[in-house]
Amino acid sequence: MNIKKILKNAVYLLMGNMGIRIITAVTIILLARYSSPKEYGAFAIAIAVSTVAGYFSDAGISNTFIREAVKKTANMEVLLGNYLVLRILFGIIASVITFVFVHSFYTNQHLIDIINWIVYPTIFGTTLTGVSTTFFQAKEKMGLSSLMIVIQGIAYSCAIGYGMLAKMSILSISILYGIAFIITGVFSLVFVLFFSKIRRGWNSAILNQLLAFTVNGIIIMTLPQLGPILLSKVIPLSDVAYFSTAYKFPSVLYQIPGVVAVAFYPKLFKLGNNKELNNKHRSLSLVELKIMSFLGIAISIPFIVSPNFWIISLLGQNYASAGPALEILAYIVILQSISYPVADYITTKGEPYKRTLVLIISFVIAICSYMLLGKEYGYMGGAIASIIVELGLLVGYSIMMKRGLLFILNGIKFNVLSFLVTLVIAKFIPNFNSIIYMTISVLCYMLFVLILDRKMFIEIKTFVQEKFRSKGENHS
Predict the structure, then answer these.
(1) 3-class DSSP state of 430
(2) 183 and 270: one domain?
(3) 228 within a domain of the structure (yes/no)
């Protein structure tokens, strides 16, 4: 199954994605401190709308492109041309749909102006950059795929940073943000053309099961953005800011286990295309689940045991009210780290329609939860709604997967047990220094996993010994 190659690709993605996620997260945090909660609330809503609209320019075509591109008989130059044309077409449709939505859903003209200056350049830039990152992902050149993401992140972070240094308004910063997406999108497309030509032709296979992937992708991208979009109708913009800033942490944190899913995806599709489902495909998915759940829990612990430290230290006392929401929202990373491998198993097995059904049901649950709980309990209700949605997804995927509960149990039992023991112990550890307290909690969790999961301990031990042995041979 060439796990080493998958993990190597995951490392490339982790280094690039996490590095730029940290930079962009810091930039957004500084912007929150720079502006008032009301102004930042408007900016957060605009980002949420642009993220959803940007995905409409993909509409699931990236999944079918990767599926076809990893086939031995694939004509990459024709496929790439088809992919580019379809993404541009979807981008135009996304722009029209977004225009209608924004001008019918919102009445605040200042908010509409900010959304307009962000969303349409984002659609254009995301369209072109998406072609680049997906192409390199299909070629399993994760370093280059990650590079495109890094360049885009640095560009819009610099745009926001310059706007703050120049003491610009949020509207002016929004304009710079949009321009950054346009520039990086053009660069990404030019970069791809150095690695592959684009030829005329048509491969109709790229449209096979596209509807299922379209619905899947749109809902997957929309669900995390529903909070700011819907809550803005039932709570003040300042409260939307509290929710959005707290939600920013898990959205960044998930990128760590998330890169594992991206690295496994092409290989899972190859096994699915070759109908190697009974042993290799399921075994590889189980490895993905073990790794992702381990990482997801490990990085969530500091934000669960000490949420106020992160909120106050990074955002300031004005956002202290978001601490309890962060404690709840941190569990999203854990739930996603468990549900995504199960969802990937279903998708790469050739049954994306099952994932579609689960997502549609969860989407309806999300709308009802955010509106009802948000109206009743404010941004804390929004945090609870987010957890309800993720639990619904996990339950749904486990039902759709054959022997799904057994699969999940085998993948997470040691990780979850270690996590629960760690939470109990953390209650008795004196918190005289937050950093030390969080570090001890994470180390306890990792130690418990290694003690309980002997197989993982042996694999890590063997890996370390081989590394030291190879270094010794190189020095000699």
Answers:
(1) coil
(2) no
(3) no
